[in-house]
Amino acid sequence: MTKRVTICETCVGPGTALAAALRDLDGWDVVMHTCFSVCDEPVAMAVQGEGSATYVFAGLTDGDADDVRAFVALYDAAPAGWIADARPAGRLRFCLKSRVPAL
Length: 103
Known about the structure:
Layout: E1 3-8, H1 14-21, E2 29-33, E3 45-49, E4 54-57, H2 65-77, E5 96-100
Parallel strand pairs: 1-2
Antiparallel strand pairs: 1-3, 3-4, 4-5
């Protein structure tokens, strides 16, 4: 299954630092992509998996890397990526902008 963390490359500096901090995510692709249209709250990030829910976050920094790691562990364990309790993901749960169910 393809799993991807995509970080807004328009959020230069902090976005690049967050991507670098996450390069070691086992089983996950970490990529940059152009503008997520959340410019008033950089850094934006999406978490996606084939056949799983999609999550969009904003207001992140490279200091959130451990919370992102905790979140992807929850995502891996959740049926279809649908996380019912995100408290173990720390501050990240307060940065959630959208959660879209899988097709």
